[in-house]
Amino acid sequence: MSEAPHEIAAGFMPLLDSALVVAAHEKGFAEAEGVALKLVRETSWANIRDRLAVGHFQVAHVLAPMPIACNLGLTPLAARSVVPMALGLGGNAVTVSNALWQAMAGHGAVLDLSPRAAGKALRAVVVARGRQGLPPLRFAVVHPHSGHNYDLRYWLAACGIDPDRSVEIVILPPPLMADALGSGVVDGYCVGEPWNTAAVMLGTGRIATVKAKIWRSSPEKVLAADARWAEAAPEALAALLRALYRAAEWCADPANGQELAAILSAPAYVGRPAEWLMPALTGHLAIGPDAAMEVEDFFVPQARGATFPWKSHALWFYSQMARWGQVLHTPANAALARETYRPDLYRAALKPLGVALPGANAKVEGALTRPTAVGSAGASLILGPDGFFDGSLFDPDDLDAYIAAQGAAEAV
Amino acid sequence: MPRASLAILVIDENRIRASIIEAGLREAGHDNVTLVHDVTGIARRIAEINPDVIVIDLENPNRDMLENMFQLSRAVKRPIAMFVDRSDQASIEAAVEAGVSAYVVDGLKQERVKPILDMAISRFNAFARLSRELEEARSELADRKLVERAKGILMKSRGMTEEAAYALLRKTAMNQNRKIAEIAQSLVTAAGLLEPGDEG
């Protein structure tokens, strides 16, 4: 350990997937790497963005597409950002109000989390409402540049529902969502945990489908670092990445689930009951009154390269920004998105640990239908399955064709 | 040349702070100021007010929602963006530190917005200072009460004079390198534990 510790301030939002950052601090992994990690809980993603930009934070727990949006100039105030690590895979779900669920059940939906069946029933409800002249259903997500927004839109579009014309999508902070569902302000939402479980526990909604079934092993939160700082303090960044990797291993051990839930439930972190946090950690999800389901890979903190910052993930998010009109697709913009994620920094930092490091920087998303051993340095590495529910593939080398083809689906 | 008065909307859940900002704006000659404390139905309010400048406290958890609405919503007749003076990094930092930011309609001149943001920053800082002082005053009062109780306990249980009781507390605090109030708190707690309780 170095004598003068690396002082790093990290912003985070009170969500289950802040687990890696919180555990790095609480379980001493940061300290063991010589990092004095100061965690600062924030109230909005905009605050995290601003405080990264003015140098209050060197790093932050952020929505995976956010640093890309910052580098593309889509946000008012933004530090040039790099993503040297992902903070796990999955963790989101789509929750709908009891009333909407009843309507969907009337069109054949059953509580089994199948994105295709739930989407089909939802489409029928949307069509019926249109015929009756009812206002469009309203869904909430946490941020326009979020996995939630792109997951929800991908699912709707693939089920033949136009996310811009057939439904309304609004922005709401996660802690308000369960209540908004109960009061009828929104009919559904896509959010991370514990805010889906919250609606089930409070009796205001049911989980219709999950991110892990829409796109298995897909990215959700990442570590963003202020690029100026990352360049000036490479040793501090590398030490932090090693601490976070150790924290990810600790979070992934089922034996630590109860302790992790207890830590996260404290007011300084998520500030909600530990019972609300356990479902995501165990994959045993309560999805409605008296209905529960085991969901494979619901939230993956460490296994199968879950912390590796795949350039194919960055480019898929970019493809969705282009799809929904947030950015114009140009070779320069695609390059900015690609260069935001930095697997080189990840490898350089973790090499001394001798852990499994993917040999490639990108992969064809959706290609693995079963767990597969892949080329790696260090220990052996298993990746996948990583399929999209509609069976499509995203080949980052075929970005232009993918962007050109999407959105052509027939929608109501 | 007389300028049309700017419509200014202040969104702050803290009513006192919002009033302080409003007073500052009125002193600076802005008479078209609206305060909103609760963002419920904010889209309709914005459509009615049609503001040129929106001042927001950064603690508001709805900031992501508001930013998105300013850009996209049909309620907003003109696009609104966060006011960022790129030539003035210090001012950006001062705003984030103070916990306030200004959003302005597209095309509004920087020199008309800058004084509003500067005023908001100084008022936010003044409010934070006041809150801190009030909090300190409160805890000082609480400390004083604790010390009084601790003195009373010592006077009663050990037959000390008030002066001797205070001297003992002070000496103990100095020896342990702690505050008198902390020693008083321990003593009061201990005395409470030793008192004959209700439980049998």
TrEMBL record, chain A:
- Cell location: Endomembrane system
The answer to whether the entry has keyword Glycoprotein is no
Per UniProt, the keywords (alphabetical) are:
Cell inner membrane, Cell membrane, Membrane, Transport
What the entry lists under InterPro entries is as follows: NrtA/CpmA_ABC-bd_dom
Query: Could you tell me what this protein is called?
Result: ABC-type nitrate/sulfonate/bicarbonate transport system, periplasmic component
Source organism of this protein record: Chelatococcus sambhunathii
UniProtKB/TrEMBL annotation, chain B:
Tell me the residues on which 4-aspartylphosphate occurs: D57
Q: Does the keyword Phosphoprotein apply?
A: yes
**Which SMART domains does the UniProt record give?**
ANTAR, REC
- Pfam families reported for this sequence: ANTAR, Response_reg
Q: Which residues form the ANTAR domain?
A: 127-188
Keywords of this entry: Phosphoprotein
Q: Domain Response regulatory: where? A: 7-121
Highest taxon, organism lineage: Bacteria
What's the name of the protein? Response regulator receiver and ANTAR domain protein
The record lists the organism as Chelatococcus sambhunathii
Q: Which classification does the entry list for the species? A: Bacteria, Pseudomonadati, Pseudomonadota, Alphaproteobacteria, Hyphomicrobiales
